[in-house]
Protein 1
Amino acid sequence: MAKTVTTKYDVSEHLRTPEEMAAYLEMCIEEANGDTAFITKALGDIARAKGMTQVARDAGLSRESLYKALSGERSPEFDTILKVISALGLKLHAAAAHTTKITA
């Protein structure tokens, strides 16, 4: 019987365009259910796709601190997240949540 060979899937290898990166981040935010580590890891995936060195430079951070901030093992400061989002060429925006309106 032949052995099945598998490799670890790395999403960063498949994020090629800004649109794909934005869609991936949006999906991760929706799926995170408030899990900030999940969202920061998604930002890390996108940063690796773009190149950590360039993203760190554009965000005004060291490469090492960027890796640590986006590892999902820490809770980076919000200003760091905003710098990274900007360095990735993405925008942070808000939309109204779907809520049930109660009328009397």
Protein 2
Amino acid sequence: MAIKIRLARGGSKKRPFYSIVAADSRMPRDGRFIEKLGTYNPLLPKDHEKRIVMDVEKVKEWIGKGAQPTDRVARFLEAADVIAKKPRANMKKAEPGKKAKERAEEKAAKSAESEAPAAEAAAE
């Protein structure tokens, strides 16, 4: 049986509230879970102490039994120094593609060409 430490969504529409739970990986996200380990309220400010509340001892116990945290829960655990930080792959998603880079270079070249005659005329 594969155990995951993950978030189970609660709260009403557009007002999310999550429970941090240990659950069988085959169960639905908001379905049956084994044990509730804490809560996460994303609507609170990031520095608020009640934003992430978890029972660290229970979490360590479940990790000792072989439970795997999901990506989001792993970040919470890394921030709480429960697990070691692991390097994340930066996939350069924000970087523009080849065509966009080419268009930007062409635009820069055109603007440099159009500025050069204007600068020469101003110098005379």
